[in-house]
């Protein structure tokens, strides 16, 4: 399973690079960092003696972050319906950093077109907002800004 996660991270990174890349040779290169694995869902047991196919795509882009959705497909030869052969699904979050300053770098926007793309984008947007809210709440707790109930 560890090797599979490593391969998923590498695929997600490759997809991120393709999305971030432009053909402008004057653009400063970006550093791409895995910020989080937002979720991993094991949908069925993965057999070590049957080939795996990994597919993925960009489903959401923020100012300097990107979410990649990956599916690991494993289906016996007699099974032709790919939707039933997804063994694992995962979402990886990458952030872009300027290679010289190390600060957040803006990334190419994403324009979802199909209904499915729009649905996935909206779901990922909601997860991003939740992550941001949790970070703010955690900072408040760390700084002692906890709301206290007044005692009568």
From TrEMBL:
Q: Which GO terms describe its molecular function?
A: fatty acyl-CoA hydrolase activity
**Location of region: Disordered:** 131-152
User: Per its UniProt entry, which superkingdom is the organism in?
Assistant: Eukaryota
Among InterPro entries, the record links this protein to: HOTDOG_ACOT (IPR033120), HotDog_dom_sf (IPR029069)
Q: Which UniProt keywords apply?
A: Hydrolase, Repeat, Transit peptide
Query: Which residue intervals are annotated with compositional bias (Basic and acidic residues) in the record?
Result: 139-152
Q: Which Gene3D superfamilies match?
A: Hotdog Thioesterase
**Regions that span the bilayer:** none
Biological process terms from the Gene Ontology for this record are: acyl-CoA metabolic process
Say which family it is in: Belongs to the acyl coenzyme A hydrolase family.
Identification of the protein by name = HotDog ACOT-type domain-containing protein
């Amino acid at each position: 399973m560890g090797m599979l996660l490593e391969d998923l991270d590498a695929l997600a990174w490759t997809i991120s690079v393709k999305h971030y890349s432009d053909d402008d040779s004057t653009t400063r290169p970006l550093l791409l960092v895995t910020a989080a694995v937002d979720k991993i869902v094991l949908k069925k047991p993965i057999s070590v003696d049957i080939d795996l196919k990994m597919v993925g795509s960009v489903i959401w882009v923020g100012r300097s972050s990107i979410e990649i959705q990956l599916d690991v497909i494993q289906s016996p030869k007699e099974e032709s319906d790919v939707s039933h052969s997804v063994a694992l699904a995962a979402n990886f979050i990458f952030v872009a950093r300027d290679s010289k300053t190390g600060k957040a770098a803006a990334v190419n926007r994403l324009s979802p077109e199909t209904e499915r793309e729009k649905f996935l984008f909206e779901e990922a947007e909601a997860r991003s907002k939740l992550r941001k809210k949790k970070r703010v709440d955690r900072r408040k707790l760390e700084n002692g800004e906890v709301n206290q109930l007044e005692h009568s």
